[in-house]
Design goal:
The complex is a heterodimer of chains A (607) and B (369). In chain A, the strands form seven sheets. In chain A, strands 2, 3, 4, 5, 10, 18 and 19 form a seven-stranded mixed β-sheet that branches. A five-stranded antiparallel β-sheet of chain A has the order 12-11-23-22-21, sandwiched between helices. Chain A has 22 helices and 23 strands. Chain A has 607 residues and is α+β, with helices and mostly antiparallel strands. In chain A, helix 13 (299-308) crosses helix 15 and helix 15 packs across helix 18. In chain A, 34% of the residues lie in helices and 21% in strands. Chain B is globular, with a radius of gyration of 21 Å. Chain B has 14 helices and three strands. Chain B has helices at residues 3-9, 14-34, 45-63, 72-93, 113-129, 144-158, 163-179, 184-204, 207-217, 228-240, 251-254, 266-298, 303-327, 345-368; strands at residues 95-97, 100-105, 110-111. Chain B is mainly alpha-helical and 369 residues long. Classes of the chains: A alpha+beta (607), B mainly alpha (369). At the A-B interface, helix 1 and helix 2 of A face helix 10, helix 12 and helix 13 of B.
């Protein structure tokens, strides 16, 4: 008898003393359920602190099936009131996933106001049904800057494994929402609720307050962005405007776009499918993901490289008679009858192809490639957005590696007019404009000015990041700026549509053939409008202004828009016009970069 | 304490009596805790009824002092017969809950004849075994009658099905047979028979009973099914810790995670709220009760009284050992109440009557020594 009782006592010692903490935890796990209260996400403001994205309460319909005495009837009433079907299937699916008893099931998210009212007024016919209020992301201007702002969506399995997310939480999936997720998210609060063995909620044991996310102040200017969106209306392509003095993005549009609101609270399959299968790829951010042949805008790079390498001077003269015989074939100038004897300034203004074929040929691909890379071509800009493309800036080594073939000098001719292997994103071309504007500093493009705490004080500010200081000869830059100014302002310039009253705009147009479109160029004499849309050329324009004290640098591409001067220059005009209405040029307030002496240190990176 | 003082003090066994009342008191507290629902008053129906049974039981226990236990020689067969009749009645008109038929609904009271059977089996066994065995101990053929006396109620109980009570009936009978003197050959024969019976009885077990045995070996194999009882009970006991969570503060029972929390698993309720300190006090009370019973058996005036005292003590011992071993996960789950603590009129009254008989045996010793 004593042996039996001793055995029991030993067992009790093991359970109650040795294993006590383990069993205490198990007992608590039995009875305590945590109900999370998601923290409202931080807001997003433009550079003048106007809200672009906010969070507002949204209503979900939830049902506790155990609380309904006649579930089929309740489901039927609910379906009638919500005007939808398939609720039974949702409940079954939840049960299949092992829903504990008395655990509510979300039936429909983001109810419309009439649905909310209907559920409220018919509460008595809907035992077990209730409304749950959750914060929902709202993009105040719809698709405005959608590619930059991004969107949020429900966490997926991968996110759940990574961090402290719970199923059903929202997480930034794209753009700023994704990149600045740790700031925007905040900290969820919750309630510890005591439940009994069947899951009935008995009382709240503890309230854990939530901490709303921090807000983000962008460098983007809502007014300029709206002007850009307006100017891009109905067009396919992209525009990006930078501040050449610090790399801040003033506006950024990629068209076609999408409405980020549809992703919140569970994107509907139909909408998702439509976005994914749209042949125009609205989800693609063309500013950083569209790699296009830069066309004649590339001639700025040729000019700088040639003069820096001393194979070209402003006095170098070439004869253009409409074409150049090279390597057994003729390379045409866009102007069938040629430009005659021509020097650099006029070659830029009238965009003479034959002149630049020869500039390229004298330079050779590797020297050209060297300077192009310094100016950011073939390199990612480092913008804090996902899936940026670096475009292609070929060299002989590149070709050897890529195609296991040597470089043919004739290929340099195509590259020299921005065709052939060379491709660039609108962001890269805006960088080229910005580098010319500021005299040689390559900034990393940024779009966040500061992160703001709940009290409104900045908790983190973003200083300009200099990727590179290029040791340009100031005279070279002056020469290019003057030529670019005449592109816009001289009577024969290709970019006169970018002219602004009282402000000296400098720019360069480009018209790039779409790949596979060899016959359909303007040289054939065909009328632009008669070419099928998808074979029409892409129109480019890059610009900065004011010429001597630049405050803005822009690149724009209109897909299949035809000539850059007529398709893209007007867009840039509208954007710059709006910009200078709000930021009147004031030479004293911006550094005079015309005579800036570049830092001889070539590579300077900050992070 | 000098013997003369004891004799003067009382004919009444105060140690036994107070241990019984203390255990019953622990029972009331635990039932109060286990049956508490936030919407109800703490003194609910269950607690009131339990208090009533204890009151009646105490009266029986005290009255037993004036009852000569030897009269049981006359009453044992009628009581046994009545108990078997009730078991048969259960099988016919019994009230069934949770898949087994164990109760007879008397309107105000659900009678559980298997509880009475525990007392009845002791009475008949002791009556048969009171004769001195032949030299060398009981022979096998002399064990046929006890086997039949055990077999009838045991099979009826097993059919309810109530494996736990059947087991207790067997263990009490075996205990009595052993202590009353058994020949070596009989022992070996019975041992062999028991070994043979094991696989055969497995065959006759209900699926849920087999499942419990499997769950005992690996409770986590089916945590929400048959392993649930053991797991939740161990959690409750383990969460109690040294001093316990405090009266009415055990969450396992109050929120219904513990199954059968007022009856078979009442020990877990108590252990969660009063910790190892309370559990040791409880064990100590049982130990003193069993020690008193054994002492009474040793000092009984005759062989009948000695065996009777041992049998009655055996009922307490086996049930306590099996119940606590079961709730702490040392034995498979079988439905056995914790004597004097678990809720239930039949159980409380049977146990207090048994304790009354012990007091009677003890009292007779005093008068005639």
């Amino acid at each position: 008898m004593m042996a039996a009782l001793s055995a029991v006592a030993v067992r009790l010692y093991y359970l109650q003393v040795i294993k006590n903490s383990e069993f205490t935890e198990l007992a608590d796990r039995n009875r305590i359920r945590i109900r999370r209260v998601t923290a409202p996400r931080g807001l997003v403001f433009d550079c003048r602190h106007r809200p672009l994205v906010d969070t507002h309460p949204s209503f979900n319909a939830v049902i506790v099936p155990e609380d309904s005495d006649d579930l089929p009837q309740t489901i039927q009433s609910l379906e009638t009131l919500l005007g939808q079907t398939g609720i039974k299937a949702k409940l079954d699916a939840a049960d299949d996933e092992g829903r504990p008893e008395y655990e509510p099931v979300t039936v429909e998210e983001r109810l419309e106001w009439p649905q909310v009212v209907a559920l409220e007024t018919h509460q008595l016919d809907l035992p077990g049904v209730s409304l749950e209020i959750t914060p929902a992301r709202h993009y105040l201007y719809g698709s405005l800057a959608a590619h930059l702002l991004g969107y949020v969506g429900e966490v997926d399995r991968e996110d759940l494994m990574k961090a402290s997310y719970k199923s059903g939480d929202e997480i930034g999936k794209f753009g700023l929402e994704r990149g600045w997720e740790p700031f925007l998210r905040g900290e969820a609060g919750g309630q510890e609720i005591e439940v009994d063995s069947v899951g009935r909620r008995l009382r709240v044991l503890k309230e854990i307050p939530d901490h709303p996310g921090q807000s983000i102040v962008l460098t983007l200017d809502l007014d300029v962005q709206q002007a850009a969106e307006q100017a891009m209306q109905g067009k396919m392509g992209a525009i990006v405007a930078l501040d050449p003095n610090n790399g801040n993005i003033i506006s950024m549009v990629s068209n076609p776009s999408f409405d980020p609101d549809i992703f919140g609270g569970g994107v509907k399959a139909v909408d998702w499918h439509k976005l994914m299968t749209d042949p125009d790829h609205p989800l693609q951010n063309r500013v950083i993901q569209g790699a296009y042949p830069p066309g004649s805008t590339f001639k700025i790079v040729d000019s700088i490289a040639g003069m820096e390498e001393k194979t070209l001077t402003p006095e170098t003269t070439y004869e253009c008679n409409g074409g150049l015989w090279f390597g057994g074939r003729t390379y045409h100038c866009w102007r069938k009858h040629g430009h005659g004897a021509i020097q650099l300034h006029r070659a830029i203004v009238s965009s003479c192809d034959v002149f630049f074929y020869q500039v390229g040929e004298k330079l050779g691909i590797d020297k050209l490639s060297h300077w192009a890379h310094l100016m950011g071509l073939g390199e990612r800009s480092g913008i804090a957005l996902d899936n940026e493309k670096g475009g292609t800036m070929p060299s002989s080594a590149w070709k050897q590696k890529r195609y296991h073939e040597r470089w043919y000098p004739a290929e340099t001719l195509s590259v020299a007019i921005g065709q052939g292997y060379v491709t660039a994103t609108p962001m890269q071309m805006a960088q080229v404009a910005s580098i010319v504007a500021n005299g040689g500093i390559r900034y990393r493009p940024q779009f966040v000015k500061e992160v703001e705490g709940l009290d409104g004080a900045p908790t983190k500010t973003y200083e300009p990041i200099i990727e590179d200081r290029i040791a340009f000869d100031p005279e070279v830059i002056t020469e290019i700026r003057n030529a670019m100014s005449d592109v816009v302002n001289s009577p024969g310039g290709t970019g006169h549509k970018a002219q602004l009253e009282g402000i000296e705009v400098a720019g360069k147009s480009g018209t790039a053939q779409v790949v596979g479109n060899q016959s359909a160029n303007l040289e054939s004499g065909e009328d632009e409008d008669k070419i099928p849309y998808k074979y029409r050329d892409n129109g480019w324009f890059i610009a900065f202004a004011p010429k001597d004290h630049p405050q803005i640098a822009v690149a724009c591409i209109i897909e299949h828009g035809g000539h850059g001067g007529s398709a893209a220059a007007p867009v840039i005009h509208d954007v710059m016009k709006r910009f200078f209405e709000l930021n009147p040029p004031n030479p004293a307030s911006t550094p005079d970069l015309t005579n800036a002496v570049p830092d001889p240190k070539v590579a300077e990176r900050e992070n | 304490m000098p013997a003369i003082d004891r004799r003067l003090l009382s004919h009444f066994d105060w140690t036994l009596f107070l241990s019984v009342l203390a255990l019953a008191g622990i029972g009331v507290l635990s039932v109060m805790s286990a049956s508490y629902e936030s919407s109800h008053h703490a003194l609910n129906g269950l607690v009131t009824r339990q208090l009533l049974w204890i009151l009646i039981g105490t009266i029986i226990m005290v009255s037993a002092l004036f009852f000569d236990y030897r009269a049981m020689l006359t009453y044992s067969y009628p009581i046994y017969a009545a108990s078997v009749a009730l078991l048969i009645a259960v099988a016919v008109i019994g009230h069934s809950t949770g898949g087994s038929r164990r109760w007879i609904n008397l309107g105000f009271f659900h009678l559980e004849p298997s509880e009475l059977a525990k007392l009845a089996i002791v009475l008949v066994m002791v009556r048969y075994l009171r004769e001195e065995p032949p030299r060398g101990g009981w022979r096998l053929r002399q064990m046929i009658i006890p086997a039949v006396m055990l077999g009838v109620p045991a099979v009826l109980v097993l059919k309810q099905p109530d494996l736990g009570t059947a087991l207790v009936l067997v263990l009490i009978s075996v205990t009595l047979v052993f202590v009353s003197g058994l020949s070596w050959r009989t022992m070996v024969a019975l041992g062999l028979a028991a070994m043979l019976a094991a696989p055969v009885s497995w065959h006759y077990l209900k699926p849920y009973q087999r499942q419990r045995l499997v769950s005992f070996i690996d409770p986590k194999a089916d945590p929400l099914g048959s392993g649930y009882h053991i797991i939740q009970s161990e959690i409750a006991i383990g969460a109690g810790g040294t001093w316990g969570k405090g009266f009415m503060k055990g969450t396992q029972a109050r929120l219904n995670f513990l199954p059968e929390e007022t009856t078979d698993f009442i020990f877990a309720v108590f252990a969660e709220e009063f910790g190892i300190v309370g559990s040791i006090v409880l064990l100590f009370l049982y130990a003193s009760l069993i020690a008193r019973g054994t002492w009474i058996a040793q000092h009984a005036r005759d062989r009948f009284g000695a065996l009777l005292a041992l049998g009655l003590t055996g009922i307490v011992f086996w049930q306590v050992a099996i119940n606590i071993a079961m709730t702490t996960g040392m034995l498979p789950v079988v439905g056995i109440p914790l004597p004097l603590v678990s809720y239930g009129g039949s159980s409380v009254l049977t146990m207090m009557t048994a304790m009354g008989l012990l007091i009677s045996v003890n009292a007779r010793r005093r008068i005639h020594s």
